[in-house]
């Protein structure tokens, strides 16, 4: 693993595009950086302050280095789950291996960027994250298709292990294009007293995303949160779900989605919480705004209990922006357009993602730059 | 000089005529306390002055400082200086009270509050709420304090308050009404304040007591006496008695 990042060797236009999706190109506020361009890992480095506390390398390099890593591959996501997992199982170009060492607290986020700049490329990656016992880290990963590139697709497998007492906050930002087909397949396992937060932010128009990541809370007092901020516009098709299975005693799941659909976009928000322990709790909240008559939004919550004592609740609301809220803000001297814009930006409130302050500010800027431009 | 002139105003809400040929003026640099039984149209009147959707002016005009505002939008009226404080303000998810207060002050979200503004926020006991979503999980009193502070930050020339005293504890009531009085007195603004109780008269030096009854607006001097008479005689008799003795609004204001 090189200590020097190779980001500086990348063309300016590529870095600029990655920056818009949250990549910190100067890397000073990041603990580690990974960059996979088309079918090649072009950067994988750890900030020297964090050496020994975490590892970051291409998954293929990691498999060579650690024979035990095979045990983590295809354990949470099945190879034959669907046509996309089968394709990645056949052949893939790389992906990241991130490992946060036991008891390590990583104050700056680890970052990764998966980018497509090649026409008609089918990018296939396989990622593994291991948060070792009692570690604490934030990961921000951006997936970008360069705006000048027509058709492409991204198939990504991610398997995430959050071990005993660990806390992992994983934020994925999608900045695809109107021509991208996106099929991420992710699974996580959350052990005793461990917390996994999985955030998904999609602000740019995209042709078609379908994903349904899941987390198994197998550990006692394990926690999982799935949060998503989705802005579907210009004919985007977003079918986004998340699933939590609560088998551990005292395990908890929470899901929060905020979705806006406009300009002929179609959005399906799914959520499933399955309580398999008589002492477990779950809550799901989905709120959707529809801005015009050409768009579509559907919320599909599923609550499953297999044991007495399971407590799972949900609340969902889809519809237009409240006129009372608009009028209220107009009494504060905002024009109707300014009021709507403020409500939309507020609706996509990044504070639901539970990020540290600096990262929260960065993500907020990304969300506001897309939503505020209306 | 009159700050607001309402001329033969008739207003429909959901097809039903609520205000009929209402005719009155509000004085400049004066606070007016508006009494009236439930359902008499007090909130409709304030909502119409503010230009809220759903309040259809079927006839008449509203002039603010001589400018016809009958067809102006809510934000245009606010920018002219008419500011309302809501009785039941909506919750706005993700919009922080701190950011809204900055908007009211004409600041950008990235600007900081001045020391004076922070002191005022502290006086309204809202410091802890700056990072909270507007009205989300606020108690009745907290909402009221937030509404009044926003209104003052907006620097109105005509302040419309819909029951600023409802659901507020004694201590908060004193603070809120004292702040309103200080603002109105120091800036020479006018206020129209709906209430059912006379407690606020202890702190707000109002010039006029008005009664909205059966679609008619009556306005008299000495609001405390009006309140006492309403308590003693009821709205109808309080007005009827004054009509009989010609101690009325029309006589006072149209001399």
Structure in words:
- The complex is a heterodimer of chains A (374) and B (255).
- Chain A has 374 residues and is of the alpha/beta class.
- Chain A folds into three domains: 1-211, no CATH class; 212-320, no CATH class; 322-374, no CATH class.
- Chain A has helices at residues 12-20, 59-65, 83-90, 323-330, 336-347, 357-371, and strands at 32-37, 40-46, 54-58, 96-100, 110-116, 122-131, 136-145, 152-162, 167-175, 180-190, 195-202, 208-211, 214-217, 223-232, 237-240, 243-246, 251-261, 266-275, 280-290, 296-305, 311-319.
- In chain A, strand 1 (32-37) and strand 2 form a beta hairpin.
- The termini of chain A are far apart.
- With 255 residues, chain B is an alpha/beta fold.
- Chain B has one domain: 3-Layer(aba) Sandwich (Rossmann fold).
- Helix content of chain B is 36%, strand content 29%.
- Chain B contains nine helices and twelve strands.
- Chain B has helices at 42-50, 74-80, 97-104, 115-123, 140-153, 170-187, 223-233, 235-244, 249-253; strands at 2-13, 16-27, 31-35, 55-64, 67-68, 82-85, 92-96, 133-134, 158-162, 190-194, 208-213, 216-221.
- In chain B, the strands form three sheets. Chain B has a six-stranded mixed beta sheet with strand order 6-9-10-3-11-12, with helices on both faces. A four-stranded antiparallel beta sheet of chain B has the order 2-1-4-5. A two-stranded antiparallel ribbon of chain B has the order 7-8.
- In chain B, a hairpin with a 2-residue loop joins strand 4 and strand 5 (67-68).
- The longest helix of chain B is centred in the C-terminal third of the chain and has 18 residues, at 170-187.
- Chain B is globular, with a radius of gyration of 18 Å.
- In chain B, 45% of the residues are buried.
